[in-house]
Amino acid sequence: MKTKIYMDHAATTPVRQEVLAEMLPYFTEHYGNASGIYVVAKESKKALEHARAQVAEAIHAKPTEIYFTAGGSESDNMALRGVAEAMQQKGNHIITTKIEHHAILHTCEYLEKHGFAVTYLDVDENGKIRMEDLKAAIRPETILISVMFANNEIGTIQPIAEIGKLAKEKGIVFHTDAVQAMGHVPIDVEQMQIDLLSISGHKLGAPKGIGAIYIRTGIKVCPLIFGGAQEKKMRAGTENIPGIVGLGKAVELAVAEMPEVTPRLEKMRDRLIHGILDTIPYSKLNGHPTDRLPGNCNISFEFIEGESMLLLLDAAGIAASSGSACTSGSLDPSHVLLAIGLPHEKAHGSLRLTLDWDNTDAEIDEVLQKLPPIVQRLREMSPLYEEIMKQQN
Ligand SMILES: *Cc1c(COP(=O)(O)O)cnc(C)c1O
Q1: In angstroms, what is the span from residue 281 Cα to ligand 1's centroid?
Q2: Is the pLDDT reported for residue 1 higher than 60?
Q3: What is the predicted pLDDT for the residue at 129?
């Protein structure tokens, strides 16, 4: 069966029609290399600078502070490795959290092998860091704090402005992975005192393989990719003009539509969450009850395996994701669910439904109707569940 209901927007989104329409001429008509001096190149150069201004405006930055990359992972790598290398004379200590995306965590592990020390902050049961922990972790040699804006699995939003204020007071560079937050939560790099910020196109209606990094004027960062002089020598390689045009448009649209889309998503999300919790026993919401992404619903069900639930949902035409084993290609359940204190078995039985602009109320109704019998069917196959039911009767 074909997917009818797509609720995995935190994994990727379709390219929006309006975005695709803006991009198309840059594949065929305006194909010039932005470095050229002839007319077709000037069209590319103009589009590049227009997109840079669109991204800058969306986060209250200056266009000169925006650099295009090939996605969120590259931006995260560039922020961490770039700052670490540029500031190694000043210190070798980095602070991050246990619930970051692997683009951050694996880069930190790499840096640990190359002379840097990393503190991984714990989070509370809702997935938030504690400001006291962050304060206590700061050392004289701390050069960088990297805390994600909003979590991709449980949707929890961190106290970004508070972290920015503290980092500023202590003279420490502050990076945030805002891949999930961009276009979903208002972002202001000035008011929040953010020094570096990563975004990715395919999480907000632009294509895969395009992203950007904001680097505040004056912050020293070494480049990752060497070659030509593109992006002020900070990111060599002929610019992906269609992708960049798409990212600029998608960011502009998402931010402009936020006042209308956010309340609609929150309403659908809350109906989904409460509809599930009210009808399915032994279920629990993961992530912060209120400080969470408008489209994120993450729920754990006892006595079942997330993977089997995803297969049955897929057979019912519903695309979702889980914090269980196979999805991540490892046997361990999600590091995020373990970090908020879920025991292994509950982490394995989790379901993530992530909504965006293209979801509808009718889809919420359908999921609320189809999910309970799927959970029930799987539980009936669980010896542990059978045991609990026997004890109750
Ligand atoms: C998806 C994601 C990334 C990686 O972005 P890509 O563009 O897929 O490389 C990084 N961080 C978070 C929080 C994400 O959700």
Answers
A1: 33
A2: no
A3: 98
How confident is the model over 214-227, as pLDDT tens digits?
A: 999 999 999 999 99
Q: Considering the chain, tell me which residue range(s) the CATH 3.40.640.10 domain(s) occupy.
A: 17-254
Residue 359 alpha carbon to ligand 1 centre in Å:
21
Which two structure tokens, joined as six digits, stand for 244?
Answer: 């960049």
Is residue 326 annotated as part of the catalytic site, yes or no?
yes
Average pLDDT of the residues in 297-301: 97
- Testing ligand 1's pocket by substitution, the residue of 100, 108, 180 carrying the most ligand atoms inside 8 A of its CB is 180
Which residue among 108, 222, 297, 326 is the active-site one? 326
| Sequence-distant (≥ 6) Cβ neighbours of residue 213 within 8 angstroms | 66, 67, 69, 75, 78, 79, 196, 197, 198, 199
**pLDDT category of residue 332 using cuts at 50, 70 and 90:** confident
Domain 17-254 maps to which CATH number in 1.10.860.10, 3.40.50.11810, 3.90.1140.10, 3.40.640.10?
3.40.640.10
| Ligand 1 neighbourhood includes 164 CB (under 6 angstroms) | no
* 128-173 confidence digits (pLDDT tens): 999 999 999 999 999 999 999 999 999 999 999 999 999 999 999 9
Give DSSP secondary structure letters for 332-369: SPPHHHHHTT--HHHHHTEEEEE--TT--HHHHHHHHH
pTM of the full predicted structure?
Answer: 0.97
**Architecture category of domain 5-12+258-392 in CATH:** Alpha-Beta Complex (3.90)
CA of 374 to the centre of ligand 1 (A): 30
Q: Ligand 1 in contact with 211 (CB < 6 A)? A: yes
pLDDT band at 326 (very low <50, low <70, confident <90, very high): low
- For CATH 3.90.1150.10, the residue range(s) in the chain are 5-12+258-392
Mutation choice for ligand 1 from 13, 97, 101, 106, CB with most ligand atoms inside 8 A: 101
Q: What is the mean pLDDT of the chain?
A: 96
Ligand 1 pocket, 79 CB below 6 A?
no
Which residue in 293, 328, 46 sits closest to 155, CA to CA? 293
Strand blocks (E) in the chain: 5-6, 66-69, 93-97, 117-121, 142-146, 173-177, 196-200, 211-215, 283-285, 296-301, 318-319, 350-354
177 lines ligand 1 (CB under 6 A): yes
